[in-house]
Amino acid sequence: MATQQKQLLLILAREFTSNLSTPSLIADAEGTLVFYNEAAEAVVGRRFSETGELPLEEWLAPFEPRTPDSMPLPPERRPTHIALVERRPAHERYLITSTDGVDREVEVTAFPLYAHTDEFVGIVAIFWRV
Amino acid sequence: MQLKIWGCRGSVPTPGPTTVTYGGNTSCVEVALDDHSALILDAGTGIRALGADLVKRGTRHIDLFLTHLHFDHLEGLRFFAPLWDESVTLEIHGPRSPVLSLDDRIHRAFSPPLFPLDFRDVPAKVLFHDLPGEPWQANGLRLSSDLVLHPGPTVGLRLETEARTVAYLPDHEPALAGIEGRKADWISAGALAHNADLVLHDAQYFEDEYDTRIGWGHSSVAHAVAFSEAVGAKRLVLFHHEPNHSDKDLEQLEDRARELTRSLDRAPVLAREGMLLDLG
């Protein structure tokens, strides 16, 4: 096919999260951030249309995820990383610094998307300010 | 590439005086091949007459691609004459299900109490194949399938020769996940129909009918046109006609499609039983 098609589950997830007031993001199976919704834009301080698609970890790095006692949060404790790599749901509370320079405490839940039991297509993460 | 439409009605067969022009048989399209084999898209009731024709032609090898297993795309299979000929090989290709194999799902529809005979009594050699995730070559064609928006596991198909491309999307509701303002890769079946010379697309409803049937898996005529234009298709054939629509209703639907069309190379037309689509 002439153009690369997004997986149907990701298309459905995008439509679903587009209509949620809960901040949400979607990454594909390769760990590329492919969408976050308007509610998430309000938390991270940047529109998705400005960000575009990029590796999720690269997108997350400027927010400096930290534990509640301000220690760096290693990737293996980040719910998005766990959902992507270990392909299981995960939840964590941590601190970020938004693009406006304000530190915010957020809770994040991420879960894997399987089209078939052997077909992992990506993850959805929801997060909100504590 | 040449296609022949043997059935284009949606949901349920609708024989009768009000459907004589466009036909009452459910989805079935034949793709003409040069090598005396046959390639068929869906096994709605239109496949019964096609089967009789294939017997006359002496066709011994048939590939049948099922977009999904709703009855209007499967019910003709039981009356497909080549099945009852032991010299025939029928290869059935269909979407994977997260739960049951294609074989098991078809057997369910082809056994008591839904049918007096069991599939194991069929004399033809029948092989089942899950449609692959990657494009493949067969019968001189490059074929692709992908899951599309419709309830249950449902695929659309893209058929390509070196010169021409056809997309077959008989049951499809892309509007449920957005068409307007989306890049083609974010539209359901966007890649399957990308720059296609011809799209056979679900156009079951007028716009006001769609408003009360959102989520049923079918498109309004406006969505069929919007989808075709968004993916850069050149020509649209309106398919999967609503059972309650008479020939006159369908002609109004075609008029509406033409009113809405902005960028297609040719005016949309209604699919019709017996229609030949020659793409050169």
Order of helices and strands of chain B: EEEHEEHEEEEEEHHEHEE
Q: Taking strands numbered 1, 2, ... along the chain, how are they ordered across the largest sheet of chain B?
A: 6-5-4-3-2-1-14
Instruction: Classify the helix fraction of chain B into a percent range.
Output: 10-25%
DSSP helix count of chain B?
Answer: 5
Distance between the termini of chain A: 45 Å
Q: Count of helical segments of chain A? A: 5
Strand segment count of chain B:
14
Distance between the termini of chain B: 6 Å
Describe this structure in words.
The complex is a heterodimer of chains A (130) and B (280). In chain A, strand 4 and strand 5 form a beta hairpin. Chain A is globular. Chain A is 27% helix and 35% strand. Chain A has a six-stranded antiparallel sheet, sandwiched between helices. Chain A is α+β, with helices and mostly antiparallel strands and 130 residues long. Chain A has five helices and six strands. Chain B has 280 residues and is α/β, with parallel strands linked by helices. Helices cover 17% and strands 24% of the residues of chain B. Chain B is built from five helices and 14 strands. Chain B has a seven-stranded mixed sheet. In chain B, strands 7-8-9-10-11-12-13 form a seven-stranded mixed sheet, covered by helices on one side. In chain B, helix 5 (247-260) links the parallel strand 12 (236-239) and strand 13. The longest helix of chain B has 14 residues, at 247-260. Chain B is globular and about 50 Å long. The N and C termini of chain B lie close together (6 Å). The relative contact order of chain B is 0.15. Chain A binds chain B through residues 1-8, 11-12, 14-15, 18, 115-117, 119, and chain B through 96, 98, 133, 135, 144, 146-149, 158, 176-178, 184-192, 194-195.
